[in-house]
UniProtKB/TrEMBL annotation:
Protein name: Membrane protein
Cellular compartments per GO CC: plasma membrane
Annotated spans, Disordered: 1-42
Domain of life: Bacteria
Biased composition (Basic and acidic residues): 1-14
Pfam family, one: DUF445
Extent of Polar residues compositional bias: 26-39
Keywords: Membrane, Transmembrane, Transmembrane helix
Segments traversing the membrane: 59-79
Cleaved signal peptide residues: none
Annotated InterPro entries: DUF445 (IPR007383)
Source species of the chain: Streptomyces flaveus
Amino acid sequence: MERTKADEVEHTEQTELIGADAQPVRASNRTGNRTSNRSMGYYSAADEEKRRGVRRMKITATGLLLLVAVIYVLAKWASHAGAGAWAGYVAAAAEAGMVGALADWFAVTALFRHPLGLRIPHTAIIPTKKDQLGVSLGEFVGENFLSREVVRGRLRAVGIGSRLGAWLAVPEHADRVTAELSTALRGALAVLRDSDVQAIVGEAINRRADSAEIAPRIGKMLEGIVAQGGHKRAVDLICVRAHDWLVLHNDQVMDAVQGGAPGWTPRFVDKRVGERVYKELLRFVTEMRDMPAHPARGALDRFLTDFAADLQSDTDTRGRVENLKREVLGRGEVQDIIASAWSSVRQMIVSAAEDERSELRLRVRASLLSLGQRMSTEPNLQSKIDGWVEDAAVYVVTTYRDEITSLITDTVAGWDPEHTTRKIEAHIGRDLQFIRINGTVVGSLAGLVIYTVSRALGA
């Protein structure tokens, strides 16, 4: 099977010499762990470039150590050969430089692995103490970044209310938010099951209708309609339709009157009676149609007024209306209409959300622009919004701080120790190699100073 670039990098890391020691890095054969911790086990091109930089600095630091070792050997040889007092100073500086270089090499190496493979206590700190470091990091973040005071202070300094208001006041931004809200609304409606929503809507309507007495409300509404004369249009329409019907069905009306006459009366009498009844009935309807002050209209007004009062105060009438309401709600046709109401509402909302020029989207956009302008100019509103955001953030932080910090500790605990070590070393190893170089230089200077002071005091 062809080896990938990541495998080649890992193979290279396994055989790399760390500074002066030749301890190879063991490869992890835990495939599942390598998959679940890809972020720490996978090396990008940037990571590999950092690793090359670390290797160059290791070569430089180790080369400096070898240089001072060679200088020490030459200085000691020159001192025994009678080269003069200067050789002692050089030897002392080189000797101290070697000690400093080796001490710092040990310290730097002990962070990532056991120096020379020797399991000396308190070495290989990162791979062996990885979980403890994760816990400490989580506690540090929780105490210093997720505290109530820090969150409030930071959010107050940001001024979310004024910034959000200035952003929303821009028409392009309001259009964007409106489009995103429309998409979210359509997505939410698509996720909801119609059957579930219909059941909820139906239950809510039935429960509301069953718990609320409708007779007094109907009576109050009817009283207002009669007082304002709103019912007169309905009476006019009924009178017109009744007149037209009588004109169109005169034969049927007269036949119905004749058919109800006694059998012993002559037929011509029945016909005359039928014609008379029809004419009187047509006259009555015509007068009601054409005379707004007709007595029958006044009687109808009084009836509706009394009925409106009974709906509000008469116990028997209110009880009958409630029984009728329950009978109507219990019918299957009515329940089907209630259940299908959600489908109509849903389709209406989806269509409005999809149409950029719909009244819904235009109103939402206008509301966002108005809100943005107010937020950017009204300090009181800015303070309220800042307070809401701060309270919400503080609630989340104080309530879920342990969960947030556990995300850090659990994530660190799930990292593979060897991959974690190599990843961290790639990012900070170059700076650590400067510690080895500085240790060599500082050690040499310190050794030279100590040797000089010793010689001066001994002299």
